[in-house]
Design a protein that fits this description.
Elements lengths: L5 H5 L7 H15 L8 H19 L2 H12 L30 H15 L1 H9 L8 E7 L1 H6 L1 E9 L28 E9 L8 E4 L15 E7 L5 E4 L3 E8 L1 H6 L1 E7 L2 E7 L8 E4 L5 E2 L2 E2 L2 E7 L7 H17 L1
Parallel strand pairs: 1-5, 7-13
Antiparallel strand pairs: 2-3, 4-5, 6-7, 8-9, 10-13, 11-12
Helix pairs in contact: 2-3, 5-6
């Protein structure tokens, strides 16, 4: 019996992630789907499609992949493959279903487990009808800096590919054309979801909502929704290095010279900031861990000092400045 390299079938390395395996499977399934083939190429496509589905049945399931990887380590090139002990050999080339049955190699490893997991009629039906994995869907949600910092619950509308009534596929373009059989099916489904944005989510955060993407069919799993968190334009505060936040604080000359305690409205709430005596324009005050969070790293919040001279000063104030001016020039 020939050993089948399922990684080679899908064209991925043995270190491939679950997402890379799923992406490779979808690409090949589209390319070799029997419904889009004609003439003599149809039979060849059916065999290739069968191999692709079998490979994904193994590598797309964590427990199946682990068992297969352990087996693969013990297999040597050029040797005839022998089923491992107690593997539960059982073929799936059932009457009338050879086109989509599993290989003897697959059955020798997963036969009994696969049978008990799928069940009688369900197994027969899925062997006859190829499995379709749901597409992943990407969408963007715009939030204010305050919403990103505090966390928010928002409603988002996404377009999800639906299953084609003609071929059972679920990959539709924006024009409602099935990319599997190229026929005009129903348009994409508009779905509204309520999503929770965790607090301190930095602009550009990608949230993965498992199973909320395109629908699968014939026991194929649903795709995932990847939600990109974008920040609305903000004039008062700036994001630096994805997780640090910087804003300006305008103070008067006497506050810069003498020092002061000032209330500042930040994206995470009002804080009391102490201005040290002799603070200069452009100087930055750092508030630790009050920025955004990326992985386990918390950013900081920086307040940049800007000194403003009031235009409508009283005569008494101008006299005092004159005294200061005279004092400085007398010293020099």
């Amino acid at each position: 019996m020939k050993f089948i390299d399922y990684y080679e079938v899908l064209g991925v390395p043995k270190t491939a992630t679950d997402k890379e395996i799923k992406t490779a499977y979808r690409k090949l399934a589209r390319q070799y789907h029997p419904d889009v083939q004609k003439g003599k190429e149809k039979k060849e496509a059916e065999e290739k499609f069968k191999e692709i589905n079998e490979a994904y049945e193994v590598l797309g399931d964590a427990s199946n992949r682990e068992k297969y990887d352990k087996l693969g380590k013990n297999w040597r090139m050029g040797q005839e493959f022998q089923p491992p002990p107690n593997a539960g050999y059982q073929t799936y080339h059932m009457d009338g279903m050879d086109d989509f049955g599993f290989s003897d190699f697959f059955s020798s490893i997963f036969g009994q487990e696969f049978s008990s997991r799928r069940g009688g009629y369900g197994r027969d039906y899925e062997a006859k009808q190829p499995r379709y994995e749901g597409d992943d869907v990407e969408a963007t949600i715009s939030l204010t800096m305050e919403e990103l910092m505090a966390g928010a619950e928002k409603e988002v509308q996404i377009d999800v590919p639906v299953i084609c009534a003609a071929c059972g596929g679920q990959r539709f373009t924006s024009r409602g054309i099935c990319s599997t059989c190229k026929g005009a099916g129903s348009t994409e489904e508009h779905k509204k979801l309520k999503v929770k944005i965790p607090g301190k989510s930095y602009p550009g955060t990608i949230l993965r909502l498992k199973g909320m993407g395109g629908k699968g069919s014939n026991a194929g799993s649903n795709g995932d929704l990847y939600l990109h968190a974008a920040m609305k334009s903000q004039s008062n505060w700036r994001v630096i290095n994805q997780i640090d936040v910087e804003g300006d604080l305008t103070i008067y000359p006497e506050q810069a010279v003498l020092g002061d305690l000032v209330s500042v409205r930040t994206p995470s709430g009002i804080v009391e900031v102490k201005i040290q005596p002799g603070t200069g324009s452009g100087q930055k005050l750092r508030l630790k861990d009050r920025g955004f969070k990326k992985n386990a790293t918390l950013g900081d919040l920086y307040i940049k000092i800007q000194i403003d001279v009031p235009r409508d000063q009283k005569k008494e104030e101008i006299e005092l400045y004159k005294q200061i001016y005279a004092l400085r020039h007398k010293e020099t």
